[in-house]
Amino acid sequence: MRNATYETGAFFVRDRSWHPKAYTPDYKTSVTRSPQKALLSLENTVSEITGPVFGHDILGEKDNDLIYNFARPGESAIGERIIVHGKVLDERGRGVPGVLVEFWQANAAGRYRHKNEGYMAPLDPNFGGCGRTITDDDGGYAFRTVKPGPYPWPNGVNDWRPAHIHFSIFGYGFAQRLITQMYFEGDPLIPLCPIVRTIADEAAIEQLVAPLDMASTVPMDARAYKFDIVLRGRRSTMFENRMEGN
Amino acid sequence: MVQPLNRLKESPSQTAGPYVHIGCVPNFLGIEGVFDSDLGKTMVNDETRGQRIAITGRVIDGTGTPLKDALLEIWQADSNGLYNSPSETRGGADPNFAGWGRQPTDLKSGVFRFDTIKPGRVPFTDGRMQAPHVNFWIVARGINLGLNTRMYFADEAEANAEDPVLARIEHRVRVQTLLAEPTDDGYRFDIHLQGDNETIFFDI
Ligand SMILES: [Fe+3]
């Protein structure tokens, strides 16, 4: 990791109108799982400002290659080969280096390797569906995978998830912790999806749609999609009077 | 017109979904051979300083049903009240304690369990000491944005009484939703997403 001096300021207040609300009845599961009382606002203390940071020692060689990290020797996952790359930025537009990014997804047929999965599409014996990486000095990351298929899910009788990849991102503070999903440019299922539509603002939805990036493809190997992720930024500590010990 | 502030918007959250285990705890799910072990599974080793405790509990929905597909992460100080984080400015934390744990709820019972240590006290923004607490982050299918809460220790009455965060809770009857009760080997902390006992969640 490059930055020797870590920021210790409080985070910008989260814009909760940009995020989905907890209670979104078109996404039925949220009805009984959404808190109904007001959240208690809490200025950031050291408990929220700090967070776990991971070293490269946790990573295996193929952690960022879902085509091969579960495959039998000499074999590979079936599907459209793609590279997903981008930057983890903060709200001030600066790259966030050295943070863990985890991702998981269905296989090319839209089937997850999970005990509770009920879709009839086939499992790919060479596809596990999970990967992870740590951002570089500029906040950049990349991984190779196959494009996931859309899949049906029990919400409405005919609800289908658009193709998507789940992302879990760590920053430097526990208050930055974020899980979200990446969608693919041009997918006609995006505007139909009740989970996508838990987000009220069209511009916020667009922030989760990755464009095809033909400049970053690998000829005869994989197409590329670009997906930048923005984590909460910190207030500058320059003009803050902090008590000793914090 | 004025100059733009040039601030980016935080990426909007989307639910972790029912298959969060694949990405976050694949070995728990039986996807073996990709990652050596599930991150955050083991929090303590023989060298870790502090009192060993188990934190067990459930995440309960508005019908009283425990979630069987939730994922919880905790973040806490070491036994001296220091966080093992580069943003910790007060000193070096116990190198044998990362302070971060991650556990799924059991796929059948809905029970989660963290084997950890009791944290020390850390200061509030004005320097007053907070009571010992463990920070929780909860994601699951049906939860659109991860929920933040804190677990305090019911048997720390004196520290809890002077805690600046607990002091802010207007409806005093709700304070108990943040208090974990002692058990044989640690503490019990049930999280209620709705209802009369709805846990206090924080906008941090
Ligand atoms: Fe999914």
TrEMBL record, chain A:
Belongs to the intradiol ring-cleavage dioxygenase family. This is Protocatechuate 3,4-dioxygenase subunit beta. Residues 84-112 form the Intradiol ring-cleavage dioxygenases domain. Its EC number is 1.13.11.3. GO terms for molecular function: protocatechuate 3,4-dioxygenase activity. It comes from Hoeflea poritis. InterPro entries: Intradiol_dOase_C (IPR000627), Intradiol_dOase_core (IPR015889), Intradiol_RC_Dioxygenase (IPR050770), PCDO_beta_N (IPR024756), Protocat_dOase_b (IPR012785). Keywords: Dioxygenase, Oxidoreductase. The gene is pcaH.
Automatic annotation (TrEMBL), chain B:
It is an enzyme of class 1 (oxidoreductase). The keyword Oxidoreductase applies. Keywords: Dioxygenase, Oxidoreductase. NCBIfam families: protocat_alph (TIGR02423). InterPro entries: Intradiol_dOase_C (IPR000627), Intradiol_dOase_core (IPR015889), Intradiol_RC_Dioxygenase (IPR050770), Protocat_dOase_a (IPR012786). PANTHER family: DIOXYGENASE, PUTATIVE (AFU_ORTHOLOGUE AFUA_2G02910)-RELATED (PTHR33711), PROTOCATECHUATE 3,4-DIOXYGENASE ALPHA CHAIN (PTHR33711:SF9). Its EC number is 1.13.11.3. This is Protocatechuate 3,4-dioxygenase subunit alpha. Residues 55-83 form the Intradiol ring-cleavage dioxygenases domain. GO terms for molecular function: protocatechuate 3,4-dioxygenase activity. The lineage of its organism: Bacteria, Pseudomonadati, Pseudomonadota, Alphaproteobacteria, Hyphomicrobiales. It comes from the Bacteria. Belongs to the intradiol ring-cleavage dioxygenase family.
